Amino acid sequence: MKINPVYKKELRIGVRTIKTALIILGYNGLLALFGLFAFYATFEYGSRYGGTVNYAKVLELYAIIAAVEFGLVLFTVPALTAGSISGEREKQTLDILLTSKLTPMQVILGKLASSISIMILLAFSSLPIISLVFSIGGVTFLDLLEFMALIIITAIYIGSIGIFFSCLFKKTTAATVSTYGALLFLTLGTFFIIAAIVILKDMKAAALVTQTDYIRKSPDAGYWILILLVNPAMTCFSMIENQIGTGSRLVTFLREFGVTSDWIESNWFFISAAIQGVLSLIFIYFSSRLLNPLKEKRRFKKKD
Predict the structure, then answer these.
(1) Which residue ranges in the chain fall short of pLDDT 70?
(2) What stretches pass through the bilayer (predicted)?
(3) Which of 43, 81, 187, 223 can bridge 162 by disulfide, Cβ–Cβ 3.0-4.6 Å?
(4) What is the C-alpha R_g of the chain?
């Protein structure tokens, strides 16, 4: 099997250091802390002070563990990918890497694959913690596979953004700050855009109200609500809502603040995952363009 040399080299270096072991320990330790606390609050505390145990809350336990793990993915991936190319540039090894037979796309894919491999390793190492809910029931093996797919898709999505900024900026600090800024915009900024549109429409509607108008329809963001399809947190929320059987809350939110179709509402997870996959390919493509050393030569030839 032909393996990308950059991926092979990064993977060998990564697994041989104590840093990887400490990341796995800290990741699963923090996840286990949240999971065991939620398990205690759901069952032990409820039976001791409430006198009964509500086994239906096991789905809430799964939602908490899944949300915490997803949050850790969002927090970890930018740190793993933002310095992948800029770090090579700071160590003055990037030029040597580019003079090899590897194409810029192969370098990008190798760096991205090595970072994503660590996240996949973390995700699979956390399976015993997530499997706590299987001791009670309510979550199927298919749900678990869907959650693993979400982790991989999100890791590639955020990782491609980190790689892009790592190629765009020469310093790792600037690339890391930009990646976290982009992540903050995707997760919170999209909600602020929807809120701003609703507020502006409400102000405009209020200005047009006359004395004879007694009923005024509550404004919404219209089709701008679809911008949330690029929000990875919204994708995770839609998956959890569908798995635990409370998907009506997602539908209520979308219909209250925007305009969507029934097909989009029922397939929000798959549509958003597909869009984020396409965006990942776009970021990877432009990253390879930024890394291409022949780009500058072509520019100078055009000037001449």
Answers:
(1) 1, 42-58, 134-138, 205-219, 246-247, 294-304
(2) 21-41, 61-81, 116-137, 144-165, 177-200, 268-291
(3) 81
(4) 23
Q: Where are the domains of the chain?
A: 5-303
pLDDT of residue 219: 66
Do the Cβ atoms of 28 and 126 come closer than 8 Å? Answer: yes
How far, in Å, CA of 108 to CA of 113, rounded? 8
The whole-angstrom separation of Cα 271 and Cα 276 is 9
Within 169-231, where are the H helices?
172-184, 190-208
- Around Cβ 173, how many Cβ atoms within 10 Å? 12
Round to whole Å and give the CA distance between 106 and 120: 20
* Residues 259-298: b if buried by 16+ CB within 10 A, e if exposed: ebeeeebeebbebbbeebeebbeebbebbbebbbeeeeee
Cα–Cα distances in angstroms (integers) from residue 67 to residues 54, 243, 244, in the given order: 21, 13, 13
